[in-house]
Amino acid sequence: MKGIKNIRESFKTRQVKYGGYAALITLAVIAGLILVNLMIGQFPSAQIDMTWSGVFSLTEQTLQVLDQLNSPVQIYGLWQPGERIPLPNNREYVDDVTTTLNLYLSRNSNISLEVLDPDRHPGFMVNYDRDRTGIPRGSVIVEGDKGFRIISINEMYDISQNQQGGIDITGVAIERRITSAILYVGSGTSPVIYELIGHDQRPLTNFGINTFLESDNYVLRQINLLLTDIPNDASVIILHDPQKDLAPLEAEKILDYLEKGGRFFILADYRIRELDNLNMVLTSYGVNFNYGVVHETDPENVGLVFFSRVDRPNLHQHEITELIADRERTPVILRETMPIVELQTRRRSVQITPFMTSSPGAFLRRDLDETSPERLPEDLPGPFSLGVAIADPPRAQSGESQTRIVAIGSSVLLDFSTIGFDANRDLFLNSIAWLQDRPETITVRSKSLYSMPMRLSIMQIIIYGALFIAVIPLGFFITGLVVWLKRRHL
């Protein structure tokens, strides 16, 4: 009895009271966190996407598309319910897709999802396999009033080859593919883009950009202007990485096309010393390519990729650079750029907007035989325009044709997109979307999983080093010491 009495008395001591209160508060906090987490899990709109690229949320443009959707869209997932399809980088395909599709379902009741095992529904598959080549397992079919679109597993991700010969997933393109498919099944039309050939250029298909254009509802074709005229269905013509200048006949056809409200996209290379005919076309709209190579001197605009020196141009506010300018982890990178010069004499109706420039400390070297890394007296000082958007007239009225041109002084933009730099690819695709006046396809881009190494200045290294090595540990030590001194007398 005496032992039981002592136990009862021990519960009345100050130490046990304070300890009990602390334990109860801890349990209450844990229970509250579990309850709040369960409640938030029932409301997807209340969840916060903590990933820097927004992998688990929809972009504002997709939300606008869904808010305007008033016709039924049926989505079929071709996998067995509960099936797990593993991918590289420890990703789970079905989890990724269903998580994203649930965001669509919660936003618009016109969208419905049905999961079907393709092995058990062969008759259903035949209705969509028009070319009889088979529909891969794991594909998604989006069907609407104007047609349907099939999206395979490989199209849901940006995939690149690593140095070990394997493959890495560098970006998640699920939202981009689904939103694009919804837009397509609602319209049933695809604008046609013509790539100009006959200039010893590298075809766009070499960079896989045709796949991304197709996912944005474009049709990519090639055309030689020495053999035929620009077709009437041309929505955009592209001159990419030409190794020789336009012929006079080609320049005349392009000028005639632009005067009728055409759209022209040029990515030129400094290696062409003579650009007389191409510059003749651009002169009509107030710009010219200036021969030479821009050298960056500002450390903030210089980086290394696979031990190769690259430039990080400054991006300025424009529809083309929307959602790209803030990407510190995957910036736009270029190499050996050529500047674009605005002419003093041009039509008043032409509006020229530089959206990509060098730093003020850059200089232009026109004597490419000179190897000095320092600026010489004959070098021209910066800054320079490396990418410009041209509109004529700048504010087209309803029914009025508007000429649009995008010129970029680099032909390696897409080279870097093949090794994981999705900002380069998005800049290219956004340029196409702006030329076509299709803002709905600009912001819906792949969610990058690639990140550049953090770049810190000497001062930042000192500040962060002192903060994490001295200030924060010392703060914890002082806090612990004060609590211990107060509680040691309890």
Topology:
Blueprint: H1 2-10, H2 14-41, H3 60-68, E1 73-78, E2 86-87, E3 91-92, H4 93-107, E4 111-116, H5 122-128, E5 140-144, E6 147-151, E7 157-161, E8 167-172, H6 174-187, E9 192-196, H7 209-215, E10 219-223, E11 234-240, H8 248-259, E12 263-267, H9 276-283, E13 287-289, E14 293-295, E15 302-305, E16 308-311, E17 314-315, E18 340-342, E19 351-357, E20 363-365, E21 380-381, E22 385-392, E23 403-408, H10 413-417, H11 422-435, E24 447-448, H12 458-487
Parallel strand pairs: 1-4, 9-10, 9-11, 11-12, 12-23
Antiparallel strand pairs: 1-5, 2-3, 5-6, 7-8, 8-24, 13-18, 14-20, 15-16, 17-19, 19-22, 20-21, 22-23
Summarize the structure.
The protein has 490 residues and is an alpha+beta fold.
How far apart lie the N and C ends? 28 Å
Biggest sheet strand line-up: 10-9-11-12-23-22-19-17
- By CATH, the topology of the largest domain is Rossmann fold
**What is the count of structural domains?**
4
Using the alpha-carbon principal axes, give the shape: globular
